[in-house]
Design goal:
Length: 144
């Protein structure tokens, strides 16, 4: 808040100042949540519609139908999309198979049964390793 002399004072006991989407004073939110919900309805589809197309179509819809709604900038929408869980975004845009094959296998674990140092990962690519094997005559030969 500002004092009468115009000097800005800070209240460090204000926990809300550390919260996301906090605005100084009692200003309203920057845009309505309805805009974000409708944008996500267009953006999180298997058609993988580009961000710019979804933003343009959402803005055109609100310009036609809901003129009183405060519409956000593209940067504000991008910020809100980045706050979403990446699994939800990937599932909406690429499908559940993509999520299961690319990220879900690393996240679902029973951590009560895994102790530190016991978690091992392997891939399914063939591992071709040459080793030295005795040929019986005092020499070595390569074996797979």
């Amino acid at each position: 808040y500002c004092t009468r002399s115009g000097k800005r004072e800070y209240n460090f006991d204000n926990i809300d100042a550390l919260a996301d989407e906090y605005v100084f004073g009692n200003r309203p939110k920057r845009f309505d949540e309805v805009v974000f919900k409708i944008f996500c309805g267009m953006y999180l589809t298997p058609k993988c519609v580009p961000f710019s197309v979804c933003y343009r179509e959402t803005k055109a819809l609100f310009a036609r139908e809901y003129r009183e709604v405060k519409f956000p900038s593209p940067a504000q929408i991008r910020y809100r999309v980045k706050q979403l869980d990446p699994l939800i975004v990937n599932c909406g845009r690429y499908g559940i198979d993509y999520v299961q094959n690319h990220s879900l296998y690393m996240l679902i674990r029973d951590w009560s049964r895994v102790r530190p140092g016991q978690c091992w990962f392997a891939d399914s690519r063939p591992f071709d390793q040459l080793i030295r094997v005795s040929d019986g005559k005092g020499g070595w030969k390569a074996a797979r």
